[in-house]
Amino acid sequence: MHKLYNFQIWLHHKTNKVWMLAISEFRSALINDKIRKKNFSMLDNIRIVLVNPSHPGNIGSVARAMKTMSLSQLYLINPKAFPHPKALEMATNAEDLLAKAQIRASLFEAIKECTLVIGTSARMRKIPWPLVTPREAALDAIHSAAQSPVAILFGCEQFGLTNEALERCHLHMQIPTNPNFSSLNLAAAVQVIAYELYIASISNMTNSKNIQLPTQSEITNFFHHLQKVLTDIHFLKSHAPRKLMTRLRRFFMRASPDKMELNLLRGILSAIEKAVHKD
Q1: What is the C-alpha separation between 11 and 31, in angstroms, rounded?
Q2: Which among 19, 162, 203, 259 would be 20 to 30 A from 265, CA to CA?
Q3: What is the C-alpha to C-alpha distance for residues 227 and 155, in angstroms, rounded to an integer?
Q4: What is the value of pTM for the model shown?
Q5: Residue 213 near residue 116 (C-beta atoms within 8 A)
Q6: What CA–CA distance (Å, rounded) separates 2 from 226?
Q7: CA 262 to CA 260: how far, in whole Å?
Q8: Which residues lie closer than 8 Å to 67 by C-beta, 6 or more apart?
Q9: DSSP H helical segments within 45-133, as ranges?
Q10: Residues 6 or more apart from 192 whose CB is under 8 A from it?
Q11: Distance between CA atoms of residues 170 and 114, nearest Å
């Protein structure tokens, strides 16, 4: 009887351990599933924006490169030929991305809700801009995509992004390549950044902060307001701007003010306007 009692106690403890282990594994699976869904929702918040793509085959190849890394948001700005059979041919099982690709008439229409815009550039510019590698860009993009849309811009195959497009970017990204043979085709460039985005998302290296970032629409309104005030106080000469607004844009984009800080700056500008008009 004593042995039977001891066996029952042992079985009870053993059963409890098994249940506790099962519950622990179930909880871990739920947490991992939540993390996985969160990471992929971040990727769903990242837009690959092709500006004036000239060859439909490249659009299809880009869609394929995106899908291999779980990116799904393809935006096309004034594509020369799309839809097109060559795009479908080169997509290879990524036809669904082409079917839901968003076509826009202007770059602003594609990025106006975005709080982080990254532009790819293969050459140095007269006015230097914050420059990052694909790995650094991916970490920033995943961090921002946890809260709001992010756009990564790729220019047309022949000339890349225009200076006007690059001025709308918070960051410029360059892919390190062989200096003696640095040419990458469009799909290859997208594949490099898509891979880095995927790795950053599954690494779960980001700590999401409850900081609201301004959209491109709000940033654009701020710069319009800034330019108006600077003109009113005769600091900005319309006949001889000397790239002042470009330099100020670079300054504020590098600082990356959040929504509250941008509202504070708008408040300062409004106070200056009132003081000027009072005099």
Answers
A1: 30
A2: 162
A3: 27
A4: 0.73
A5: yes
A6: 88
A7: 5
A8: 93, 94, 96, 97
A9: 56-68, 85-91, 95-99, 107-111
A10: 134, 175, 184
A11: 11
Q: Coil, strand or helix: which one is 188?
A: helix
Cβ neighbours around 47 below 10 Å, total: 22
d(CA 88, CA 145): 29
Tokens, residue 92: 């290879």
CA torsion sign, 91 to 94 to 95 to 98? negative
57 and 90 in contact (C-beta within 8 Å)?
Answer: yes
Q: Which of 82, 93, 36 is nearest to 59 (CA)?
A: 82
Tokens linked to 256: 């990356």
With tokens 């200076």, the residue in question is 163
Express each pLDDT in 139-165 by its tens digit.
Answer: 999 999 998 999 999 999 888 999 899
Would you place residue 27 in the very low, low, confident or very high pLDDT band (cuts 50, 70, 90)?
A: low
Q: What gap in Å lies between CA 66 and CA 152, rounded to an integer? A: 12
Asked whether 155 and 53 are in contact (CB, 8 A), the reply is: no
- Write b or e for each residue in 67-98: b if 16 or more Cβ atoms lie within 10 A of its Cβ, otherwise e: bebbbbbbbbbebeebebebbbebbeebeebb
Is residue 18's pLDDT more than 60? no
The residue among 212, 209, 220 whose CA lies nearest residue 253 is: 220
Q: Is the dihedral of CA 187, 191, 192, 197 positive or negative?
A: positive
pLDDT for 250 equals 86
> 181 Cβ partners below 8 Å, 6+ apart?
none
> What's residue 183's pLDDT?
83
**What is the spatial distance between Cα 67 and Cα 94, in angstroms, rounded to a whole number?**
6
3-state secondary structure of 49: strand
Q: Is 82 strand, coil or helix?
A: coil
Decide if 121 contacts 176 (C-beta within 8 A).
no
Q: Which two tokens stand for residue 150?
A: 């992010």
CB 144, CB 212: distance < 8 Å: no
